[in-house]
Structure formats: C-alpha cells, structure tokens
Design a protein that fits this description.
The complex is a heterodimer of chains A (405) and B (265). With 405 residues, chain A is of the alpha/beta class. Chain A folds into 3 domains: 53 residues, Alpha-Beta Plaits (2-Layer Sandwich), CATH 3.30.70; 187 residues, Rossmann fold, CATH 3.40.50; 121 residues, Rossmann fold. Chain A contains 10 helices and 22 strands. In chain A, helix 9 links the parallel strand 21 and strand 22. The longest helix of chain A is centred in the last third of the chain and has 19 residues. In chain A, helix 4 packs across helix 5 and helix 6 runs parallel beside helix 10. Chain B is built from 6 helices and 15 strands. In chain B, strands 11-10-9-12-8-1-6-7-13 form a 9-stranded mixed β-sheet. In chain B, strands 2-5 form a two-stranded antiparallel ribbon. The longest helix of chain B has 17 residues. Classes of the chains: A alpha/beta (405), B alpha/beta (265). At the A-B interface, helix 4, helix 5, strand 11, strand 13 and strand 14 of A face helix 3, helix 4, strand 9, strand 10 and strand 11 of B. Strand 22 of chain A pairs parallel with strand 15 of chain B, so a sheet runs across the interface.
C-alpha cells in the first residue's frame, strides 16, 4: 500500500514536510509531492489538517516498503564518561545475531550509534567489543541526556541509514527514548526483551519478553514495519569477548536541531545515586526473601556474604517490607542476574522473583518448607531453619579459611 | 488548569495463574484493578489540585465497557470527570495504536495542560504508552517522576533515572509519567463515593467521536503482533536435602567446593 496526495485538496501548508521521518516529501508548484525515498510508513497521514493525504487501497493496514532497510544498530548509552555495561551486552548480542545471519540476509553488519560528548576512546572500545561501524555524534548539547535532542539525533540516523533492527537498553533512559522515536517514525517497539533471535525462515527478529509479571513469555514480531525496534533488559545478554585486533570503521554525524526539537526547558543531574550493588561480576549472590523475617535476618546473610565474597540480593517482598534497600531487588521488577551460584534463603520462589535468576549457573535454596515452589526451581533445597544453618555455614567457611591461611 | 490522568484497568498479576497444560493465562476469577502506578498518577493530580486550587482533574482510559468500573473508582477518589475510549475497533491495539487513540481522545477533550500517566502497567510492563502519547501530541515528556512541582505555566520534575537523579522542567502542556515513590494514594471516602455516584459518570468516546484514522487504531494500526506465548521453564533438578544444621551446612560447602567457589583465604 502506498501514500497518495490529493493535489486538489493540498493547500501547500507544508505541515507534512517535517512529519516525514525519511525526508521523502517535497514541495512542487506549491503542492506536496512524494519523492522516491518514501517508505509508505504513513507518518504524514496525521500531519495533514485537510485530509489530502491518504492510503492507496482505502483505510486498511498501513504497509511500508521495507526493502531498503538493513543492518543491526545499537544505541550506546554513556554515563560519566563510560559506556554502560548494558549497551555492551546488547552489542554482544547484536554481534551474535549478525554472525548467525549465515545467508547474509540483511543483518550481517553491526553499527553502534554513539551520541554524547567527550567520547574519547569509546569508538575503539565498541569495535573491539563487536561493532563493525560506529556513528559518533559528539556535541556538548548531548552531554546530558534529554529526550528531545536524543530523539532528533536517532531519528536522523534512522532516516539516513534505514536500519533493519535498532536496539536500546531497557534502562530508564532507553525506555524514555525508544518509544518516542518509534512513535515518530511509526514502527513497532517491543519492551524489555530477554531473548532475541532471527527467524530461520524469513530473518525477522523474534523478540521474547516476560508479560503478566513474568507469568508468561511472549515472542513478539514486527513483520511489516521497519526498523524493528526493541529495548533489551540489562543483565541478560553477554558482552562479546574483547578483540583489540578487530577492524571497524567510524563516521561522525552532526546534531541538527529544528525549532520543534526544543521541548525541554532545563535539565540537570542533581545527584549520582550510583547503585551500590554491582551484581554484574558477582560469582555468588545470596538472596533473602520473606522467610528472612526482618533486617536482622539480612545481617545474618551479610556475615555469610562477607565470608564468601558474595553480594546480597532480595525479593520484592523483603524490599517492600523495608528490610533492605531497593538496590538489592532481584526479579521481574528488579535486576536480572546470572551468577555462578545463587543461594536463595527464605525465598518462596514466586515467578516474579525467579524470572530474574533464570540464568544462574546453579541455584540452591535454604527453606523451612519442603513444599515451597522454590524446591522445584532450585537445583537443591536444604530443608531446615536458616537461622541455625546460616551461622553454622558462616562459621565453617571462616574456620576453613583460617586453617588454609 | 486541566490535568488528564490516563488510567488502565489491569488484571491483578499477583493473582494470575497459568494453565500448565495449555500454557495460557487463567483470567477467570482474577480481579480487575486500577493499574497501581496510575493510582499514584491520580493522587499526584489531586495533590496539584489541592495546592493550586483552580484545577480540573479528568481521567481517561481506553478499554472494554467494564473498564468504566475503574474510572468510577477514580471518580470516587476525587476525579472531576471521566472518559472511556470504547469501541470494538480499538481492540487488539499495541502501544503505538493505544497511544494514538489516547492522544486523539486527549485532542477531543482539549485544552489539556498536563497529562499524568503511571510509568508502566503491571500486565504489559512496557512503559511505552506515556512517551508515545507525548510524541503524538508533540509535547515534552518527563518520565519516572518522584516529585512534581506544577504552576500555571510550567512543571518541574525530579526523577529517579537509574544511577542518577534528574531535575527536568518544561513548559505546559507537558506529559509526566510517575512511579510508586512519588506519593501514597488516598483511600475513597463515603463523601467521595456518594458524590461520584450522584453527580458524575463515565462518558464514552467511540472512534467516530474522536475522529481517528482507521488505519492507525486497534489491530490494524499495530505494527507488532504476538507470534507465540509460552510458560517460562524455571524447573530444575529439585533435589531435597534433609538434616540438622551441621549436615546441611556441610552439604552446602560440598556444593561450593564442587563449583570451585569456596574462598581459599
């Protein structure tokens, strides 16, 4: 289906011109006309106040021309002069997808899109970690994230490069930015994906995510619109192995702002609350749930964690009871983790919580209830009173360390 | 000043159960509730009304007729007016089509100075509809608000934005999405309930009323579709170990040793 402009109705008001994400509308003899760049995305339909723009074939489903789109693009998020870990994980996944595209359909090339300021050696870093190409948009006005300017920058990249796929981190920033872009260019967006793969039949992106609080997984597709857009949950994918000899190219693009791109009056960072809990490189995580019974229980976990060199996690129930800060929360509404060993203490095993630890190497549970759901979701469950088991375990480990030393 | 709060009626996901045989949701008997964060958004709107005085608070939802019950609840809590975008043609909408429909409804009930939304809904967890409405309307968005200071002309918001806290301000009209940390929603009062049922009601908006482009709404206007659903495979070996604290403690130590995770010093 394609776009039709009725020149009898068109008043030449030019409202549709900036609405086109692909710069495919032009003025000719005081009337709007489509240029060959038109993808038929339909973004101009609502811009016309006079209903001069319509779809050929009536008011059915809008079908874009998706033939000109190719490549996997990854939006790179930076903070305090560093690339976010989540962006590197997505880059690793994009690399894996590109390498899996054996038939070299359309997605064998990975481009990192890097907006910001004072980006230093980040492009080299991105190439070493899987990018074939890096688009750098370095501008002091991009130093602090703001929705309006970043939306402009990324839609400009999409217009110029026409990506087949573009991925963002499912961070507050990514989830602020990606929907705004998806709406401007009128394409689909899947939130908070925990699985991505390419369909072996048609190469389309299969985007899997939890829904209904993690009770069910849904695989979402965007068959008829491009780019295929998704935000990806941090902590789920793995970054690629660094290869300093990898070859890649870079290019710079400029930030060009129009009058309508100034929506925010003022933005400032008032506080760095940098998460105190870094689960990413934790080999062992010890988590407490409702069965921990209170803040004192977490002190017990703290002693064991100190002896083991582990980090402390918590279920939503424990966080909402006020026993420990939200930074520790693991699960559907908290962090996703993948340690070598997850020790769940007094955790009943709700789906919401377990969805966040699916990737753990081994899960062991300490629980007084042998019928709790956790018993089926752990590799092994030690049935007993954690208030006597944990101190004993801490004592034993400390003793062995002293003996060894 | 006119504030519109968008509200979604959702199944209480804490009560959702899965039919393990078919891999589908058992919706029967699951209570429909007002999306929790939307309740916080409504509370924020009511607080602004109390602070500034001359403010009208309207609630807007898209959904089947029974979503009207949730809007009635909002009226009982103190909202002045309620609209439900309700039409078979709206069904099956993804976030793009939903945001478009709500944006067109907002244009219908304009002028609107401030749109407040919950950050995300507990059934879909996308957090996409708020920003998408803002883009449809061409107005600024500020997400994840934990504090809102509104005046007649502008809004200043403090947000928890991952590793940083941000302060963002914008001129009205604007859209703000709020999280749970912003306030504690009030309870219904007898007076509020009586006033809602006596003087207020839910007004329906059909696709005709809000002049939508049929290619942009419902299933037709949704670029994304669900290819399949499945129950997450969370089951593991499930070995049960019994014994006294010493036995169990030793068992855990053996596992740590086997995984080479026991600290040497």
């Amino acid at each position: 289906m394609s776009i039709i402009i009725d020149t009898d109705i068109c008043t030449g008001c030019k409202r549709c011109i900036p609405a086109c994400p692909y710069d495919a509308l032009a003025m000719e003899g005081k009337k709007a006309v489509r240029t060959p760049a038109c993808t038929g995305c339909g973004a101009c339909l609502d811009a016309c106040k006079y209903s001069a723009i319509s779809l050929a074939g009536g008011q059915g489903r809008i079908k874009m021309d998706i033939t000109g789109f190719s490549g996997i693009y990854v939006f790179i998020e930076t903070l305090g002069g560093a690339i976010s870990e989540g962006s590197l994980e997505i880059l690793g996944k994009a690399r894996e997808l590109a390498d899996s595209d054996a038939a070299s359909r359309k997605t064998s090339r990975v481009t990192a899109v890097l907006p910001g300021h004072a980006l230093d050696r980040m492009p080299e870093e991105l190439i070493a970690l899987g990018a074939d190409h890096v688009i750098i948009i370095d501008d002091p006005r991009l130093a602090v994230y703001r929705t309006d300017y970043y939306t402009r920058v990324i839609t400009d990249v999409i217009r110029e490069k026409m990506p087949e796929i573009i991925l963002f981190g499912a961070t507050p920033l990514g989830r602020d930015l990606a929907p705004r872009i998806a709406n401007r260019i009128k394409t689909g967006l899947t939130a908070d994906c925990t699985g991505l793969s390419l369909c072996s039949k048609d190469g389309i992106l299969l985007q899997t995510r939890p829904a209904f609080g993690g009770n069910i997984m849904a695989t979402i597709v965007c068959p008829d619109n491009r780019p295929q857009m998704a935000t990806v949950r941090p902590g789920v994918m793995r970054r690629a192995k660094r290869d300093s000899n990898r070859i890649g190219t870079t290019e710079t693009m400029a930030l060009t702002l129009g009058k309508k791109d100034d929506l925010i009056r003022h933005v400032e960072v008032v506080e760095n609350t940098k998460d105190a809990i870094d689960f990413e490189d934790a080999r062992i995580i010890i988590a407490g749930g409702r069965g921990i019974k209170g803040p004192e229980g977490f002190e017990l976990l703290g002693k064991l964690a100190a002896a083991l060199g582990a980090r402390i996690g918590a279920t939503r129930a424990a966080v909402e009871a006020g026993w420990i800060s939200r930074a520790h929360q693991i699960g559907q509404t908290g962090k996703t983790v993948r340690p070598d060993l997850y020790i769940a203490c007094g955790v009943s095993g709700s789906i919401q919580h377990m969805a966040g630890v699916m990737g753990a190497g081994r899960i062991i549970a300490v629980n007084s209830d042998r019928n709790a759901p956790i018993c089926e979701m752990a590799d092994e469950t030690y049935v007993g009173d954690l208030f006597s088991i944990l101190p004993e375990l801490t004592r034993e480990i400390t003793e062995r360390k002293t003996t060894a030393a | 000043m006119h504030i519109v709060v968008t509200i979604k009626q959702v199944p209480d996901t804490n009560e959702v159960r899965i039919d393990k045989k078919t891999g589908t949701l058992i919706r029967e008997g699951v209570p429909a509730i007002m999306n929790p964060e939307d309740k916080h958004a409504l509370e924020a709107a009511l607080c602004i009304r109390e602070e500034l005085g001359d403010v009208k608070v309207t609630v807007l939802s898209m959904g089947p007729p029974q979503a009207g019950n949730t809007l009635m609840e909002a009226l009982c809590l103190g909202a002045d007016e309620a609209f439900l975008a309700c039409d078979k043609a709206f069904a099956g909408a993804d976030t793009l089509a939903t945001a478009y429909t709500l944006a067109m409804a907002l244009k219908k009930i304009a002028p609107v100075d401030l749109v407040l939304c919950g950050s995300q809904a507990i059934d879909g967890d996308t957090a996409q509809v708020g920003p998408q409405i803002a883009e449809c309307l061409g107005i600024p968005q500020i997400t994840y608000a934990e504090r809102i200071k509104a005046s007649e002309k502008s809004v200043e918001v403090e947000s928890g934005f991952g590793a940083v806290r941000r302060r963002v301000s914008a001129d009205l009209p604007a859209l703000v999405t709020v999280g749970k940390a912003i306030n504690r929603p009030r309870y219904k009062t007898m007076k509020g309930i009586a006033a809602a049922f006596r003087d207020k009601g839910v007004q329906l908006l059909t696709s005709q009323d809000i002049k939508v482009n049929p290619g942009r709404i419902g299933l037709t206007g949704s670029p994304t579709s669900v290819k399949k659903t499945f129950v997450p495979e969370l089951g593991r070996a499930g070995r049960i170990i019994d014994g006294g604290p010493e036995t169990l403690s030793l068992g855990i130590i053996h596992t740590l040793e086997a995984e080479n995770l026991l600290p040497k010093s």
